[in-house]
Amino acid sequence: MRDFEGELAQRKQAGLYRTRRQISGPQQPELTSDGKPLLSFCSNDYLGLANHPGNIDALRHALPETGLGGAASHLICGHHDAHHQLEQRLAEFTGRGSALFFSTGYMANMGVISALAGRGDTIFSDRLNHASIIDGCILSRAKVRRYAHGDVDALATMLAQTSGHKLVVTDGVFSMDGDVAPLKELAQVCRAHDALLVVDDAHGIGVLGPQGRGSIAAQGLSEEDVPVLIGTLGKAVGTSGAFVAGPEVLMDYLVQKARTYIYTTAMPPSIAAATCASIDLIERDDDRRRHLEKLIAVFRQQATAMGYQLMPTETPIQPIMVGDNWTALELSKALEQQGLLVTAIRPPTVPEGEARLRVTFSAAHSEADLNRLLQALSSCRHLLPSPGVAV
Questions:
Q1: How far apart, in whole angstroms, are the C-alpha atoms of residue 226 and residue 169?
Q2: Which CATH number is 319's domain given?
Q3: Where are the extended beta strands (E) located within the chain?
Q4: What distance in Å separates the CA atoms of residue 240 and residue 234, rounded to the nearest whole number?
């Protein structure tokens, strides 16, 4: 029998052992974690909508009409009016012909990628893509070629050497580095080499682009440039689930072929109703995004002045590069002792030697919250090798 206890002991020794926190109350910057109050800077609730009263009211008002559970898959009797309305709203919001509502972002990536490519086809995947993209590529049974992160020239060379059906898949905003994919250049290369471009904009929807329409819209691109857009609803949107949007013919194809859509119970319809309300908020509330941008700019200026090494990103994901697993854990623990929750991210989530603190900002953070984080970071500089941060 496999030595499970031994493998766990090895993870602990390498500083890679993971534990779960128990959170009480709603998701917001002020959390109660294992009975202790903490100010969180590690959530993906970028716009502070996970606990928005308007979204909660929309959910509450929908329940008497929709009931609680989804009860069946979309292809049996689970496709509710509320699901249909959300899909229409998502298509409109993203500027696409049609959309499908999935239960999770992981299921969306696995279902879409494995449906759009298969044996005999080739998938080209950015080396820093999310685990759900990687697993979707494996599940497809297509040949998978990984190109260096953001390296469009390397991708173009690979595409030129490949015949048959080609699929290029990338994150829009990379979840651990916070940088944005070069989507304009990727779209041009895909068009030149007859490849289908799929973008997972989980961390861009709601935050980037005009009215929060995401990284694709931020770079002035349309459905013609990026035919398949995947997004999650549990991050900036503040609810739950995921979606894929694109031309109606492709969405119809996915209804026939995407196993993670076909063979799972539909999400509660009330969640779909609350998500429509949240999208309305996102569309009209530029003030949230402006406040978020201000917090990010101040943080970057002051944390860099302290000697912390940040990644080159203007998104709410602001990693502090540390390098060593144990140092990252120690820094996270020191911040927690001052009442701040900032998670240490270690391999295999990030490459070996690139452990970091993944600081994330929300429009629900106040300037006082930011100042508290900066003061705590200032007091913790002694934990890092001098000068700056070793990576």
A1: 10
A2: 3.90.1150.10
A3: 23-24, 30-33, 36-40, 98-102, 122-126, 143-147, 166-171, 195-200, 228-232, 242-246, 317-323, 340-341, 344-345, 355-360
A4: 4
Would the pLDDT of 146 be above 60? Answer: yes
332 in the same domain as 186: no
Q: pLDDT band at 381, cuts 50/70/90?
A: confident
Domain coverage including residue 159: 53-284
Q: Assess whether 323 and 379 both reside in one domain.
A: yes
Tell which residue, 64, 86, 62, has the closest CA to residue 74.
86
Same domain, 30 and 66: no
Buried/exposed code over 305-329 (b: 16+ C-beta within 10 A; e: otherwise): eeebbbbebebbbbbbbbbbbebbb
**Residue 77: how many CA atoms within 13 Å on its side-chain side?**
2
210 and 165 part of one domain: yes
Residue 124 domain-assigned (yes or no): yes
In tens, the pLDDT along 212-241 reads 999 999 999 999 999 999 999 999 999 999
What integer is the mean pLDDT of 321-336? 92
Q: Domain ends where: 232, 252, 284?
A: 284
Q: How far apart are CA 38 and CA 339, in angstroms?
A: 5
Of 244, 267, 284, the last residue of a domain is 284
Would you please indicate which residues are annotated as catalytic (active-site) residues? 175, 203, 235
In a shared domain, residues 369 and 260: no
What are the structure tokens assigned to 326, written together? 């144990």
Question: In this structure, what DSSP letter does residue 310 have?
Answer: B
Task: Tell which phi-psi region holds residue 64, choosing left (phi > 0), alpha (psi between -120 and 50) or beta.
Answer: alpha
> What is the number of domains present in the chain?
2
Q: 182, 178, 253: which is closest to 221 by C-alpha? A: 182
pLDDT tens by residue, 172-189: 999 999 999 999 999 999
**Interatomic CA distance for residues 231 and 104, integer angstroms:** 9
Q: How confident is the model at residue 384 (pLDDT cuts 50, 70, 90)?
A: confident
Measured CA to CA, the distance from residue 348 to residue 339 in angstroms comes to 27
Q: Where are the alpha helices (DSSP H) in 97-182?
A: 105-116, 131-140, 152-160
C-alpha 234/C-alpha 278 separation (Å) is 11
Within a domain: residue 210?
Answer: yes
Q: Does 376 lie in the same domain as 230? A: no
Range with the poorest average pLDDT among 92-96, 167-171, 354-358, 369-373:
354-358
